[in-house]
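S1.2 Input.
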Amino acid sequence: MIIIVLAMTIINIISVATIIIYLNRKNNKNTEKMIINQINENNKENFEENKKNLMKLKNQ
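S1.3 Output.
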């Protein structure tokens, strides 16, 4: 009886650990995508600002 309880406990611990690892990896991928999207947006804004500044310099 004790062996069955121990086996079930070990299986539950492994299951929970597996789920936590899976969710953590999924969350990391989503975080990476958000960071990349933010960098991309910042690059677009900087490009437009640099373009405007370059035009101002050319017109001086």
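S1.4 Remarks. The CA atoms of residues 35 and 41 lie 10 Å apart.
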